[in-house]
Specification:
The protein is α/β, with parallel strands linked by helices and 323 residues long. The protein contains eleven helices and ten strands. The protein has one domain: Ribokinase (UDP-N-acetylmuramoyl-L-alanine:D-glutamate ligase), CATH 3.40.1190. Strands 1-10-9-8-7-6-5-2-3-4 form a ten-stranded mixed sheet. It starts with 9 loop residues before the first strand and ends in an 18-residue tail after the last helix.
């Protein structure tokens, strides 16, 4: 395996993305061709996170959406997203899901193209048990797996008899910001901010995961040593729910057929550019995470139809911080 540990990460600019086009469904295609995404998350205290992620997945082009969330909030989520099938799962006292949820999800395993686990979930250890129970069922199905928020705790809480950190048998995508990476690795947040390239790459290889280390400069690293970066500075994206939207965009792109690295790369740029569009109309501080998703379809259309030096570039560069 050739590891590009000394090479500078490739910039996620318009030319690179134009030469790395997303899968496009045929004009005669139906919703099945656009992909089926499952969003697993939410809780009594944070039902909004799974709603934000689910809407973002649809805005990114997924054709079918299923949301699996706690029984306590399933009806609320169903009313908020009438386009979705919603499954209610058993919850424990801490707000996490019980492992019995796997039986509810098992019939979907062969029918989904991407699964996002984590937005709004509580009880890290219970979430890790659920992740480890689900992964064997998903292996061999060509389902893209994205772990966000509390679901990344599966790295710290492996199955019995396995020492942490957990190494995934099949690569998944994880989406930590610096604080979450500090939690997952034990490395100080300040050190992570100052050495993101190395830390993201080492984590990708250690965990067998595509790592999207979010920040004002976001670094994407793969187990094979590939790295990309995206720099920006839109402070408005540092707001509650912004990371849930990004995770949902990535999941929607993966459902359409993008591999994990491509879905992460395009998702990071689309998320940042959505923030740029909102900042241009409303100001850089005060727009809401739920408003980001509405910008995504036009950005995708623009990327597909404009010259490479103009695609996704309303303000001259790819800018945007990540939360």
């Amino acid at each position: 395996m050739t590891l590009h540990t000394h090479a500078r990460p490739r910039d996620l600019d318009a030319i690179l993305l134009r030469n790395w086009p997303l899968p496009i469904p045929s004009g005669e295609g139906d919703k099945e061709e656009r992909g089926h995404v499952l969003i697993l998350g939410g809780s009594r205290e944070m039902p909004g996170a799974v709603i934000l992620a689910a809407v973002a997945a649809l805005r990114a082009g997924a054709g079918k959406l299923t949301v699996a969330t706690g029984n306590s909030v399933a009806q609320l989520v169903a009313l908020a997203i009438p386009e979705s099938r919603v499954l209610g799962l058993a919850e424990n006292e801490a707000g996490g899901f019980t492992v019995e949820a796997v039986a509810e999800l098992d019939p979907l395993a062969d029918r989904i193209n991407a699964i996002l686990i984590g937005p709004g979930m509580q009880d890290e250890e219970a979430t890790a048990r659920l992740v480890h129970a689900l992964l064997p069922r998903l292996h061999g199905t060509d389902t893209s797996v994205i772990l966000d928020a509390n679901a990344m705790g599966a790295i710290l809480h492996p199955p019995a008899g396995v020492n942490p950190p957990f190494r995934f048998g099949v690569p998944v995508l994880v989406t930590p910001h610096a604080g979450e990476m500090a939690h997952l690795t034990g490395i100080a947040k300040e050190e992570i901010a100052g050495d993101a390239d190395r830390i993201a790459l080492e984590a990708a290889q250690r965990w067998n995961a595509v790592v999207t280390l979010k920040g004002a400069r976001t670094v994407i690293a793969t187990p094979r040593g590939e790295r990309w970066q995206h720099e920006g500075g839109n402070i408005g994206l540092a707001t509650s729910g912004s990371g849930d939207v990004l995770a949902g965009i990535v999941a929607g792109l993966a459902a359409r057929g993008a591999d994990l690295a491509q879905a992460a790369a395009w998702g990071v740029v689309l998320h940042a550019q959505a923030g740029e569009h909102l900042a241009a109309r409303m100001g850089k501080i005060g727009y809401l995470a739920r408003e980001l998703s509405d910008e995504v379809p036009a950005l995708l259309e623009q990327a597909a139809g404009e010259p490479a030096d103009a695609a996704l570039r309303p303000s001259g560069n790819f800018a945007g911080g990540k939360s």
